[in-house]
Amino acid sequence: MVTLKTQDWLANDEAMLSSMDKWQRAVDLMTGLLGATAGYVVEYNDKLGFRAALTSQNDANPNRKLSGKCEPASRNIYCRRVAQTKASFYEPDATGNPDWADNPELTDDGYVSYYGVPLFWPNGVVFGTLCVFDTKPTGYDKRQLELLECFRDLIEADLRLYEQYQIMRNISMSDPLTGLNNRAGFEMLAHQKIRIAKRYHHNIGI
Predict the structure, then answer these.
(1) What is the residue-averaged pLDDT of the chain?
(2) Mean pLDDT to the nearest integer, 112-120
(3) CA-CA distance, 92 to 115, in Å (whole number)?
(4) Which of 35, 92, 159, 167 has a Cα-to-Cα distance from 144 of 20 to 30 A?
(5) Helix (DSSP H) and strand (DSSP E) numbers for the chain
């Protein structure tokens, strides 16, 4: 359930740290095996748009450090096609294709090739995309395209675990009759708010 997310971007949730490390290794391996310029896990938020959760760390990738910038959901980027259709999309060579004339990934970054698969929450809502970009035309065969689907399954398994974790966490932290936080829930939230207040030098009171 997407409603169980504690933040707009799942990559910012401390509960996902171990999964993000695993996803990073998968994206690095995927990018290397395909010989692509860059690989990404991109999160989708229907209000905020698209944001890179992580990117491959290979030498050819010019954007190994994430900017944290969001692309609006209306922007004509490759991942938007995947999120809209909820299906895999392969563009072997976008050079001269009028469909992508205003795509900044092509016009600004020079990514002429793209392959992306959708990532789904257990309830079928789009979480984002798993994708590779290349600055040269590509000709991936069927087995290479299936490779991304294997890594997709790994990421979606983690999304299911995250959902189950949040359900159990909510059960353990709240009163079943009123839905209000119990003592354990109150203490956890209090520690969280105190950490945030210290980090940003804010005052806090009860």
Answers:
(1) 89
(2) 97
(3) 8
(4) 159
(5) 5, 5
